[in-house]
Every structure is written in structure tokens, then in C-alpha cells.
Amino acid sequence: MPSFFRRKILILVLVAFIIFVTLIGFSIRERENISAPERFILDTTGVLQSIIHTPVEWVDNSIETFQDVLRVYEQNEVLKERLAEYEGLIVENQELEEEVEELRGTMERAEGLEKYSPVQASVIARSPEKWFEQVTINRGSKHGVEKDMAVITKEGLIGKVQSTAAFHSTVKLLSGFDTSNKISSWVVKKNGDNVFGLVEGYDEESGRLLLGGINLDVKLKKGEKVISTGLGGVFPSRLQIGTVDEVKNDEYGLTKTAYIEPAADLYEINQVIIARRSVQQGKASKEENS
């Protein structure tokens, strides 16, 4: 009995297969008109294909969109890294250019110290407690540096050596000068009739040097340059100190005091030159009134 049913099922499958193949062969023939069953099958198949194709296409497009977003994100991350590297190179290049320019300026300034033996040095430290008063440089007595030697940058005078060790020295900045650290100076006039004065302090409130001892009958103009006279043998002559910014009578009305804008930046100092005196100059007297 079971064998009969198996044969019957096999026969039905074969008949259905033959009918299916016959329909396929009939449908693929080139005809202008198709039968009603074929139209029904075609429409049904089209509807089913549309139903299946729409979500499949949406999923496929979504996957492509996600992959595109992922690629854009990865490319964006790479560009960010390269941009950061590029910005770092720009900053490093600017710093190197500034350092080269500063070194070039100090070398040019050193060439003007004919009667001195310039010693180039770098600032290695600034004390937080005395940030505006002194710096530490990497040259000392082993390099011929001595106390009271003038220290300059490419812009001009910044101070003098306060103390020395074998390989390091402390520099007292102009912003730390007082009446015990005077600098004999000239206010340069266009007609050549320079005006003498003494840099004798620093006004912390305005950030300017104080040039005192100026006669009442002398007229000074804003912007006139102030240079060192070289008297006393401590500071070389004609070093740029600053420019006249304002002039006032002193409290007693006997002389005038000029407020001088420093030529050199006293806050950002990296490369300096120590004006090392010769043997003969070393035996000269210290700066007058110091």
C-alpha cells in the first residue's frame, strides 16, 4: 500500500514537471499575444518581484550609504591627523625662523662691539619671584664673564651681569634697576646737540625707564632715541636703551625726568650677548655714580 502511494506521488511530480517545462517552452516563444494564464502569471510574478525588490533595494542603498559615511569619516580622521601635523610643522617652522632671526640680530649686534669681546649666551631660567628683575644665562666665569658686564639683545641693552658662577651667571634687567644702578646716557638730537641724562630707575606701573638729571631748559621730543654714552667703562657706547615717551619736572622743580620706552623686550628674552671687557678695560673704574 505505501509503495502504491509513493509511485502515485512520483507520477504526479513528473506530470507537474512536464507541464511546467511545457509552459516555459510555450511562454518563451516570440509571440505578440499571450494567453490569460500567462498574463496572470506575469502580473503575479511582477508584483511579487516589486514587493521583494523594494526592501532589498532600500537595504542595499542603506548599506552603500553607511559604507560611504564610514569612508568619509575615516578620510576625515586622516585629514585631521595630517592637518594637526601640518599645523605643528608651521608652529615649529615659525619658532625656528624667530630663533634664527634673533640669533642673526645678536650676531649683527656683536659685530658693533669693536672694543669688547662679545660672548653669546642663552637664557635658561627666570625666577618666578623676580621674573621682571633678573634672568639666568648659560655662561659664567669660565667663559670670561664678570660682574657688571653689559648684557644686550638684538634690540638693545637689557641689563648687566649681577653675579657669576663657573658656567652660569645672573643678569639684572633694566626693569630691576634703581638709583644704585645708573647708566650715563645721551638723548640723541637731530642737530647733534645731544642731551645728557642718567637712567636711574624703572617705573613698574608704566613699564618705562626713568631718565633723570635733565636740565629744565632742555626740550625733549617724544620718539627721540636714548643711547649709552660709554662713560665709566661698564656699558659700551651707543647702545640702544629706548626712546623718549614723556617728560615731567621732578618733584622739586630743579630738573626734568624723562620716561623712556625700552628698546629691548624685557619680558621675552632668549638670546643675549655679554659685552666682555678687555684686560685694559677690566682695570678701568666702575660706572660713575654706581
- Give the full name of the CATH homologous superfamily of the largest domain: Rod shape-determining protein MreC, domain 2
Query: Class of the largest domain, according to the CATH hierarchy?
Result: Mainly Beta
Q: Average pLDDT, to the nearest integer? A: 77
CATH fold topology of the largest domain:
Thrombin, subunit H
Supply the helix-strand structural class.
alpha+beta
Q: Helix content range of the residues, please?
A: 25-40%
| Computed CA radius of gyration, to the nearest angstrom | 45 Å
Distance between the termini: 135 Å
Q: What is the count of structural domains?
A: 2
- Shape call: rod-shaped
Low-confidence stretches: 279-290
Number of strands: 12
Q: How many H/I helical runs? A: 3
Strand order within the widest beta sheet: 1-2-5-4-3-12
Strand content: 25-35%
Largest sheet: 6 strands, antiparallel, barrel
Order of helical and strand elements: HHEEEEEEEEEEEEH
Which CATH architecture of the largest domain? Beta Barrel
